[in-house]
Design a protein that fits this description.
The relative contact order is 0.11. The chain is 27% helix and 16% strand. Strands 27, 28, 30, 31, 32, 35 and 36 form a seven-stranded antiparallel β-sheet that branches. Strands 3-6-7-8-9-10 form a six-stranded antiparallel β-sheet. Strands 25, 26, 29, 33 and 34 form a five-stranded mixed β-sheet that branches. The protein is an alpha+beta fold. The radius of gyration is 32 Å and the shape is globular. It has 30 helices and 36 strands.
Length: 996
């Protein structure tokens, strides 16, 4: 084990005692030599017992401030500080801050509530009272610091094996308590390359520290001095005098600038207090849900048995020390790109709505990404239940050998960083014994071992080498995924494809090229590169591809195999030429991955007939929103440049903000800062929020309500806002309400009752719904009398989102499992032009059948498509038509892929089903004696991201799977009342009318 000395040999303690001999010094291991908690168990007592002081480390001349203190508010980047330096650090400072600091060097920053004047003056008082007893002065001073000052420490330990920056950062309290990664999940107090510390330290001119001999006892020079007023002289327990002035002698008659803003960045208790407010997970099972989905077959597990996920703060992978890797976790980015929640720290990428720090909305890159479906993709409980179903279906069909191929393919998007970094590392170091062809779901449950016992257990079961990839995978589609994507290219020997076809044949299904590991792309040219280079060894560079919708298409056009389809004929609806296009695109992707990384997992899947499983990007391409003059990119809609609160109380039409918060020229002065031009972060107009939402409120609501089980902290670590999940949901609600669909309704008399003409207009840039095929949107058309009593309804649901008949019973079509005698397939709701019965419902959806013509929600058994009436976007064209050829040319590749964007089934021949809209007629029979002019008709389009038949298939396909059991646990207890998804549905457009 590497060890180092942490004491000096010829130093004198400030109080006058002699230093200990070298052989008597305490030694500590390097942080890289032990698992985290084991290291903290050694470091923290050393710090809290102040062994460094007892052993004679050199320290600052006196307590000092790190910024102004005005009106009872500190504007310092730390509280009052007094720093101790290990001999290695002192030697480096004496050498003019040249070269590198050796491993084992330690900087200990003692901290107490500001300002420093209270400690300087208190010590002077003690020295006056006990002139001949310096030991008593020291003892009483220390007692005062521990009690009144709340003494605590931040520590930096140099260890070049840890990360690119080479420092271990820790925050230590008087109790020396080590970290806990149990709910409610607070950021670790100790971490290699801590992003929140690097926020400031990355701006240091050398070695990520600002230390100067001007501050150190025994050396010339004086520390920086900051403005400190007399507002602190109101200390309880002191008699009238210098420490307790009357209010009339303090600034503003004793009033504080704000109601005592806590120093959130260095308070041990602030985050814990915030997290303590988080409601516990729901425990009561929804009886309606349980009636619709009975807890049979082993699907129901008690709370103590449900599979949980590790704390999000265990998702930690810093930049490697010698050769930065492609993928890092978001906690490397959070310090600079996580926002600041108000004074005294600043207001950056934050909309403050109240007087306290953290009151408002964190709209920083990290803040909104964290609770977006992209940020949650690696923890998505619906996705992991889906994977268990896919594996079960493959096993049942005797194709269990394909589970690793399919799982690795799916996790190439949902666990993008872990899956990709594994294949990169395995290829770069073939002797490491890593297997990149089977990225196991179990890896997403791994984390870096916290103790030697955990490390031993991982090594024993063969998972130790994969824990870092689990840390990466749980982060989903994180910062270093999108900011590394490069445009697709034609491989040698391929035809001269146009730009679109190059993408279609080489850039779908999560297969994308990447920029160099030490380059991250962004939209701006004039960025301050040095802090990121210092912290992580990465240079941010401008590349307009980050603004190109095609970048999003890498994961939003999915071409998958159909493992049960005959391989000697094309899939239904496609020609042999079409089928060859899909199959060749799959082979191209497999070939690229094999060439670049030597992996073979996609190859086995290329033996099957492929088809487009998700088409969101190419739906956008086949719309007016990709055309000049009417163009709106994916980023225009899903990365807002404005902000509107859901209640309408706050509106910011265009956001202007800094896009990073670092130690710059606007913070209190520090020694040894980088040149001003390297740290002066400009304000940006047209800031793009990283909200990335669609309409999947269900998943985010599960993660919010069950944050303990899913490993999520509800409190933001930089701004301390607690509403990040709710902000994501609110953004979805606004998108549903204002940007998804318009519904119009006209009434007239007819057919012995009322005729309602309903039109639904798609306001999105793709189909509605889009993405995975099981999403659905349906029309609820309801008639009520003057008392609000329901008289007629098509599309009404119960409390579990199941569409019911007039008696409240589920429709026979709801679970796609009722096969009438003599029928080939189960009952379902077809596309309608006219609805005349309450059991008929207009549902916009794609329905698929497997080879046995059984309805399926599998992604790889999609053989037949009896229905696809998802609303197309405006401007959608049909392949083969003159209009399509005029726009896209005669490419077989484009035509084949675009067939996945057009309607199927009855909608294809409905003259009222047009690009961008659908119109249908409701013939409503009213009860006898009801005056048609006295009723109100309301038409509402609802969205269901996980409809009842989807859930039923999950629960029945793999009831013993831990992820499936977890989904049942969450879904059966999810509280929807009073939320945006009350009764398991999300409202979009709506219209009401009375007969005129």
């Amino acid at each position: 084990m590497l060890r180092h000395s942490v004491a000096a040999t010829l130093l004198v303690v400030w109080s006058g005692g002699a230093a200990l001999a070298q052989s008597d010094r305490t030694t500590l291991p390097l942080p890289s030599s032990l698992p985290l908690l084991d290291y903290e168990e050694q470091l923290y007592p050393f710090i809290a017992d102040r062994t460094f002081a007892k052993e004679g480390w050199t320290r600052d001349k006196s307590w000092r401030d790190t910024g102004p203190f005005v009106l009872d508010t500190s504007y310092g980047v730390h509280p009052a500080v007094r720093i101790y330096y290990s001999p290695e650090v002192l030697t480096w400072l004496e050498g003019g801050r040249k070269g590198g600091i050796p491993d084992g060097a330690i900087v200990v920053k003692e901290m107490a509530s500001p300002p420093a004047a209270r400690y300087v003056e208190y010590r002077e008082m003690l020295a006056y009272m006990h002139p001949d007893d310096p030991a008593k002065v020291e003892a009483e001073m220390l007692a005062f610091l521990r009690t009144t000052g709340g003494l605590n420490w931040t520590v930096m330990v140099k260890d070049s094996a840890l990360s690119h920056g080479g420092w271990f950062f820790a925050s230590v309290g008087q109790s020396a308590a080590v970290d806990s990664f149990d709910p409610p999940y607070t950021p670790p107090s100790g971490q290699a390359g801590d992003g929140m510390c690097m926020r400031c330290h990355a701006s240091a001119a050398e070695e990520l520290i600002y230390s100067s001999l001007d501050n150190v006892e025994g050396y010339p020079g004086e520390p920086l001095i900051f403005r400190v007023d007399e507002s602190w002289r109101d200390m309880e327990g002191f008699p009238p005098g210098p420490f307790n002035l009357p209010a009339v002698q303090r600034p503003a008659m004793g009033a504080s600038e704000a109601a005592l803003i806590e120093d959130f960045f260095h308070s041990e208790t602030a985050l814990a207090k915030s997290n303590a407010k988080v409601a516990s997970s729901p425990m009561e099972i929804n009886p309606i849900f349980a009636a619709m989905f009975p807890p049979t077959g082993g699907i129901a597990v008690p709370p103590g048995k449900v599979q949980t996920l590790p704390s999000e703060w265990l998702d930690h992978v810093p930049a490697r020390p010698n050769d930065v890797q492609h993928f890092l976790t978001s906690d490397n980015c959070i310090g600079c790109h996580g926002g600041l929640g108000g004074p005294p720290s600043g207001t950056t990428m934050f909309l403050q709505t109240g007087p306290n720090y953290g009151d408002g909305y964190n709209i920083s890159e990290y803040g909104e990404w964290r609770w977006s479906p992209m940020g949650l993709a690696g923890r998505d409980p619906i996705f992991f239940a889906q994977l268990e179903s896919e594996f079960a279906l493959l096993q049942k069909a005797g194709s269990g050998d394909l589970t690793s191929n399919l799982g690795t393919t799916c996790l190439s998007c949902h666990g993008a960083m872990g899956q990709r970094q594994l294949e990169i590392d395995a290829h770069a170091n073939p002797d490491a014994g890593l297997d990149p062809n089977n990225f196991k779901v179990a890896y997403t449950l791994l984390h870096s071992p916290l103790t030697e016992a955990e490390e031993k257990a991982q090594k024993a079961d063969g998972t130790y080498d994969y824990h870092l990839y689990g840390n990466l995978a749980r982060e989903g589609i994180s910062c270093t995924v999108c900011h590394h994507i490069a445009p697709p290219e034609r491989a040698e020997g391929q035809p001269e494809y146009n730009k679109l076809d190059t993408y279609l044949m080489n850039g779908t299904t999560g297969v994308f090229r990447m920029t160099d590991a030490d380059r991250l792309i962004g939209p701006f040219a004039d960025v301050r590169q040095k802090p990121m280079e210092n912290a992580m060894g990465i240079t941010p560079v401008k590349d307009d591809y980050i603004k190109d919708s095609e970048l999003c298409g890498a994961c939003h056009t999915i071409n998958l195999p159909n493992v049960d389809a005959p391989t000697d004929k094309p899939l239904e609806g496609y020609t042999a030429a079409d089928q060859k296009v899909f199959n060749d695109a799959a082979r191209n992707g497999a070939a690229l991955l094999n060439t670049e990384y030597g992996v073979t997992f996609p190859k086995a899947l290329t033996d099957f007939q492929h088809s487009v499983e998700q088409a969101t990007y190419i739906e956008w391409v086949n719309s007016i929103y990709s055309e000049k003059g009417t163009a709106q990119s994916c980023q225009d809609c899903h990365m807002k440049s404005d902000f509107h609160s859901v209640d309408g109380s706050l509106s910011v039409p265009a956001i202007t903000t800094q896009i990073a918060s670092i130690q710059d020229t606007k913070l209190p002065d520090v020694a040894n800062l980088l040149p001003q031009e390297d740290v002066d972060v400009p304000f940006r107009e047209g800031y793009r929020r990283h909200n990335f939402v669609g309409l999947n409120v269900f998943m985010v609501e599960m993660m919010r309500q069950f944050s303990a089980e899913m490993g999520m902290s509800r409190t933001d670590p930089m701004t301390y806002a607690t509403n990040g999940a709710q902000l994501a949901i609110d953004t979805m609600v606004l998108q549903a309400r204002e940007e998804t669909a318009d519904v119009t309704l006209d009434l007239r008399k007819g057919y012995g009752g009322l005729v309602a003409n309903v039109q639904v207009t798609n306001k999105t840039g793709h189909r509605l719904p889009s993405g995975v095929s099981f999403r659905r949107a349906f029309l609820e058309v309801q008639v009520v009398d003057e008392n609000g009593d329901r008289l007629w309804c098509s599309g009404c649901t119960n409390g579990a989102g199941v569409i019911v008949d007039p008696l409240g019973m589920p429709l026979k079509t709801e679970f796609l499992d009722v096969v009438p005698e003599g029928a080939e397939i189960a009952l379902y709701q077809p596309h309608y032009r006219v609805i005349s019965d309450q059991t008929q419902v207009q549902i916009y959806e794609e329905l698929t059948l497997n080879a046995d013509r059984v309805f399926t929600t599998s992604f790889v058994h999609r053989d037949y498509h009896p229905k696809d009436n998802r609303l197309t976007p405006h401007g959608a064209l049909t392949p083969g038509t003159p209009e399509f050829i005029a726009r896209f040319g005669d490419s077989e590749v484009t035509a084949a892929f675009m067939k996945a964007t057009v309607p199927e089934g009855r909608a294809a021949s409905d003259p009222d089903f047009k690009p961008g809209s659908d119109a249908l007629e409701y013939r409503i029979t009213l009860p006898d004696g009801v005056d048609p002019s006295k009723v109100t008709v309301t038409a509402t389009l609802y969205s269901q991201a996980i409809p009842p038949y989807y859930l039923k298939q999950r629960f029945e396909t793999a009831p013993n799977g831990p992820a499936t059991q977890r989904l049942y646990y969450l879904a059966s207890r999810l509280k929807t009342k009073g939320t945006a998804i009350e009764n398991w549905k999300l409202a979009t457009g709506s219209a009401s009318a009375v007969l005129q």
